[in-house]
Amino acid sequence: MASAVRSSVVPEDKLRSFSEHLRRSQNILALLGAGISAASGLPTFRGPGGLWRSHNPTSLATPEAFGRDPGLVWQFYSHRRHMALKAQPNAAHYALAELARKNPNFITLSQNVDGLSPRANHPDSQLHLVHGSLFDIKCNNCEYIRRNDFTDPIIPALAIPKAAPQPNPSTDDKTGAEATKALYSSMEYQSESTAEGQDLDVSDANIPIPRISPDQLPKCPDCAIGLLRPGVVWFGEMLPEDTINAVDNWIAKADKIDLVLVIGTSARVYPAAEYVLRATDKGALVCVVNMDKNDKPPVEMTDEDWFFQGDASVIVPEILREVLEKP
Ligand SMILES: [Zn+2]
Description:
This protein has 327 residues and is an alpha/beta fold.
């Protein structure tokens, strides 16, 4: 993908000055947004589309919505989980994971819930998911949380109501795939396309979202009262305290921060905006990778900083290559 333009994406002089700075950098903070996963084919928050086109995703991403109709909210998230699992981590996710293994003083704060950085084996202790993850499952009543559960669907009733089921290449969950098939065949849904990759976008106006009652949904194994729910941060909820504390402590401990990488995000919203400012206060130079040249973080950028415009999956491995290849 895009290999033909590879060498021309990053201007030679800027690549050289960045590599030199990266080589000397100890404390590095990366902020990731939807743009890094766009190259893996994942849409941004507007949601999975298709079946959900008539639903405003923001109206489903709240504790109130879950309280009102947990079955509907779970189906929305089941769909997003399925799409995220069909996507693969790209070269940018892998390059950052490798940089983390090389440099224990490098931490990444991701606003993405898509599980692509964990699936690229980014070391857990150096990856902070400020908006949680579609693949963390937690209780709405107690503190129970189960991380990196990639089962799809999480329970058979949450299979996506569409025809043309495709076994998911990302899991070996035969039981799940068979259950999905059984559910689909019992539903008599018509498919307009059976092509892999298109099945999530079948025209859906006529496909009803099945009604799923709360007693069909997974219960908490700890308290047995609560319902399990997706471990993402919903509108009106606090960001995960442990995660924020871990990043705060890392910043507080650093005498100097050398570099802040801002990848696929404008970093204009809390907490990303604040972290860019705090990093630059501690001396960090800024490197932005973004498709849109106007998508800049809320700091004054100078000639010393870097703005690499384009596809993160091409640019990130390119700018990290020299340091990653060094033994
Ligand atoms: Zn519980």
